[in-house]
Amino acid sequence: MPSKKKITETIASENNGTPNDLSRPTPIERIPATESQKYEELNFIDTSKPVWNYSLLTDEDVLNYQAGTNYQLYKKFGSHSIQVNEVWGMYFCVWAPNATSVSVKGHFNDWKNHEYELTPRWDKSGIWEGFIPHFKLGEAYKYHIVGYAKRKIDKGDPFANFWEKRPHTASITWDMHYDWKDDQWMKNRKKKNALDAPWSVYEVHLASWQRPDANDEETYNTYDQLSERLVPYVKELGFTHIEFMPVMEHPFDGSWGYQCTGFFAATSRFGDPQGLMRLIDTLHQEGIGVLLDWVPSHFPYDAHGLFMFDGTHTYEYADMRKGFHPDWNSYIFNYKRGEVKSFLISSARYWFDLFHIDGIRVDAVSSMLKLDYSRKKGEWEPNEFGGNGNLEAIAFIKDLNATIYRDFPDVQTIAEEATDWPGVSKPTWQDGLGFGMKWMMGWMHDTLDYFKVDPLLRQFQQDKFSFSMMYYYDENFMLPLSHDEVVHGKSPMLYKVPGDEWQKFANLRLLYTYMWTHPGAKLLFMGNEFGQTGEWNYKSELQWELLQFDCHRLLKDCIAELNNLLKNEPALYQNQFTMDGFEWVDLDHRQESVIVFKRKGKKKADDLLIILNMTPVVRNDWQIYTSGKKYKQEIFNSDDKKYWGTGNVFNPGIRSEIVDKGQKKYCITVNLPPLGGIILK
Question: What is the mean pLDDT of the chain?
Fold first, then answer.
């Protein structure tokens, strides 16, 4: 274990050299000291003992915890700085139902076992608690647990708000108070996060977006440095939201954060929890919403984490047909236990409550829903009705979403769900799972398959291209081009598309034009906006040096313009999840691979006409028959020189002739750029 001095230095270095006063006994605001008086009446406090027998929990708290309906556990479980009998100290509360002894150890007592013993509650709930007077903030600690069959285990605090920086694994007592300055955003975010608002999400892995040393995986920018660099970049690009890959504490960088051990703690790689709060605060002040990846599907087997917490399967299923995840070599939460359900929903609620986030993207929902996920015959057991649904997980997901939308009605929950499970983004009262949106994985696979094909052969793949329009309104879909598509040999986006250098960039601009004009929210992983030439590598940083070349820099400008159009053209977002927002105009020119469709807003005057030329053949004087309004202006051309296009094929004026006055049908004549998309208004 590192010395206390080392921890202090680490924390200071991660806050731009400003040391924290680790000795100040500041109370957390959410448990005012004056409330301690009513709890004193319920507890006999022997002040001669090193740990005072003391509780913040009421009987109702415990009953709701056991029933799976206590969703604010972070306010009383874990460690909290409070005042008892006019003495400041730390209250500890942990669930270890099969333990015979739980004690707190740390630097404060040279990591000795059994000196500071917690007391089990009288109600046999398995909760251990106690108050240690004069215990300071900033102290590293663990629970020493004597568990089932006298197993002796040292565990971090499941409710810790701060952890040591890996490879060290102790929890740290901390004060979570922060003075927010995002009142304007919070007041108006209902409009920004609504389903009929523009959604373009920039997905970011904080460690590898940019590093102090580009090739040293041990160097990290602080949350404050990211505020200075990342926020203006995202604003320049015009994204409406940013999504952080998991920032919850995790021991292994190679898991990208998806093997989490700290479900209530921002990772200390970039600083303390208030650092993340400042980053989110800054994004909000710049009008950018914040989404967090959240992983309630599994957790790793690290010794200091949740696995076998009290010597038994406490948080995970005991039956490994349900409790072990073969894909990720990790363990699955026991959604049947009320205490586990309370833990997980409290975790989600914690990030909305204390960190002001605007949404969570729930990872690996498919693996939670299905008992046979990644399992062969004989490796899983059907549910009580003979099906493959995990009924407990389904109930948990519904309660999760119902709780979040009840308590935070101006946010969104988003499911990464890759099957045809019905009603993922339908309300729970309509027998849906209750998510606000769902990743459109089918669109992603079909689109990439289509654009990988030689342009002259795309005529034979048009059905794959158009298939998503058969079901885009079944769910509230988000179109993802995420981190998963640019790793593990899948190649970067630029090299997924065919052709020479010019054609690759033209194809990529065309793909993005199609994506931004397709119904649904958008998500783009970092680096895709300027066409990385290498796969994403979590150990280094993005290839920022590529921006010295026009082809990459101007591709970034193309994304910024698409985001600008998305925010300023109601037809692209008002009806993005309904059948009213889309209409095919021309799918009959399969051989030429020219595809035309209309995006429609609530007003006909806002309608847009999107024309995609999927081949490198220039098509002058191309005729399109439309109905309704005249299209008078080309408002976007992916072949524009300002995006590194040829700039040779454009439409300064739209030739439009009425062919049926009664039906308001027009013949529009336009010039189509090679591998280009144009938008008419």
Answer: 92
Number of H helices, E strands in the chain: 15, 28
- Strands (E) located in 355-435: 359-362, 412-415
Contact 287, 185 (CB under 8 A): yes
In CATH, which of 3.30.43.10, 2.60.40.10, 3.30.420.40, 3.40.50.1970 is domain 4-172? 2.60.40.10
Predicted pLDDT at 47:
77
> What is the C-alpha to C-alpha distance for residues 474 and 463, in angstroms, rounded to an integer?
19
What is d(CA 359, CA 411) in angstroms, rounded to the nearest whole number?
5
**What is the pairing mode between strands 477-481 and 521-525?**
parallel
How crowded is the C-beta side of 620, counted as CA atoms within 13 Å? 2
Question: How large is the average pLDDT for residues 344-349?
Answer: 98
CB 273 within 8 A of CB 265: yes
Tell me the C-alpha distance between 220 and 213, whole Å: 8
Provide DSSP, 484-549.
GGGSTTS--GGGTS-SSHHHHHHHHHHHHHHHHHSSSEEEEETTTTTT-SS---TTS---GGGGGS
Residue intervals of the chain classified under CATH 2.60.40.1180 are: 580-680
Distance CA 191, CA 185 (A): 10
**Residue 380 pLDDT class (50, 70, 90 cuts):** very high
How confident is the model at residue 177, as a pLDDT?
96
pLDDT over 50 (residue 396): yes
> Considering the domain 580-680 in this protein, what is its CATH number?
2.60.40.1180
Q: How many CB atoms are closer than 10 A to CB 38?
A: 9
Burial of 220 (C-beta count, 10 Å sphere; 0-12/13-18/19+): buried
How high is the pLDDT of residue 355? 98
Position 16 pLDDT exceeds 80: no
User: What CATH fold (topology level) applies to the domain 183-572?
Assistant: TIM Barrel (3.20.20)
d(CA 151, CA 153): 6
Residues with catalytic function: 363, 416
Q: Global pTM?
A: 0.92
